[in-house]
Design a protein that fits this description.
By secondary structure, the chain is an alpha/beta fold. About 35% of the residues lie in helices and about 25% in strands. The chain has an eight-stranded mixed beta sheet, sandwiched between helices. A hairpin with a 2-residue loop joins strand 11 (about 235-245) and strand 12.
Length: about 350
């Protein structure tokens, strides 16, 4: 069921929600949180679809905030609120309210959203793209216990990671971090099966991929070892190698779906590591509302500190020239590698 409201108010939207629930015979509210999605018209469809799919695991009231940019000075002075209310099969397992804010009202979105929040329920704010520099100090972010961004959608993802580190507040998280949860789980499980001191690691993946950088920073932070970041053609994160005193542990995913885990004196094992959809990532983040201290520690490690030992080495397909360069690097004095080890072990 859909209800369109033009030039409306938050009070009228609440009345429409109550009327719609009664009309479809579900007057009781069984939702566990309010998910505020801050997006634009271009990305609204995909964002709402992902939020709706995630609501199958976490029944919620989804409030989409779309700020409409007015072209003429007169239109920018006029404040208007248009809304669309969706309940029943049109809204997944909860309710959806799409708010379109025109004119000056776009600068005061929090005053419109606040009356629509579920009482005594957690609030999560998600920016699929265009997140503010400091989500916790954003007027909408200040309403939430959990704030979700996605550095992968930024124009300069690595610079965005530095911003996330500088402005981190408890409750902040990023979908670039969520994407590497299966990788972190598999690497931790591999070390449980083959307990040995890790003396170095290599993370291989696409250039400017924030998930690759976060995984490398996590390894460097938790293991206190030098971590080399190398490049590949992707897709995404393609391989992680951990050098231990008992041999090398390799988790290699060349096709973006199926990985191979290799360890010393053990047969190779196939591991499912598919690239997950946004709805799956969002559902994972909604499972916890407490601060993610592991993410905070990893992102604060810093991309600059990770690369302090030198430039990232590009290692796609090896040809004759690449193999010759690799052989020359192997003969280089060990002193050249000292700065990277020192930077990673601080």
């Amino acid at each position: 069921m859909k209800i369109d409201l033009t030039e409306t108010t938050s009070s009228k939207i609440n009345q429409a929600l109550v009327s719609a629930r009664r009309a479809i015979g579900t007057p009781a509210i069984g939702m566990v949180l309010t998910l505020v999605v801050v997006t634009d018209e271009e990305n609204a469809y995909d964002a709402l679809k992902s939020a709706g799919d995630a609501s199958r695991e976490h029944p919620s009231r989804i409030i989409a905030v779309i700020k409409r940019v007015s072209r003429s000075p007169r239109a920018r002075r006029d404040a208007r609120l248009d809304a669309e209310v969706r309940v029943g099969s049109d809204a997944g397992t909860g309710e959806t309210v799409v708010l379109r804010l025109h004119g000056e009202l776009a600068n005061h979105a929090q005053s419109v959203v606040l009356p629509l929040l579920l009482p005594d329920a957690p609030v999560v704010v998600w920016w699929p793209e265009g997140a503010p520099a400091d989500p916790a100090k954003d007027p909408l972010g200040a309403l939430a216990q959990r704030r979700i961004t996605d550095t992968y959608s930024a124009e300069r993802p690595l610079d965005e990671l530095a911003v996330r580190a500088a402005t981190y507040s408890p409750g902040d998280t990023d979908l670039a971090w969520t994407r590497i949860t299966p990788w972190r789980s598999m690497l931790a499980a591999a070390l449980d099966q083959q307990p040995a001191e890790v003396i170095g690691a290599t993370v291989e993946g696409e250039s400017d991929n924030p998930s690759c950088e976060l995984l490398a920073m996590w390894l460097a932070d938790r293991l206190d070892v030098p971590v080399e970041r190398t490049l590949s053609d992707g897709p995404g994160l393609t391989a992680v190698r951990m050098e231990t005193k008992n041999g090398v542990i390799v988790l290699d995913r060349a096709d973006g779906s199926l990985a191979t885990l290799s360890m010393q004196n053990q047969p190779d094992r196939a591991v499912a590591l598919k690239r997950r959809e946004t709805a799956e990532l969002l559902a994972e983040e909604l499972r916890r509302l407490d601060p993610d201290n592991t993410y905070a520690s990893a992102v604060k490690f810093g991309v600059d500190r990770l690369h302090a030992g030198g430039e990232v080495k590009a290692t796609p397909v090896e040809g004759p020239v690449e193999k010759a360069d690799k052989a020359a690097d192997a003969k280089a004095p060990a002193a050249k590698k000292a700065p990277a080890k020192k930077a990673a072990s601080k």
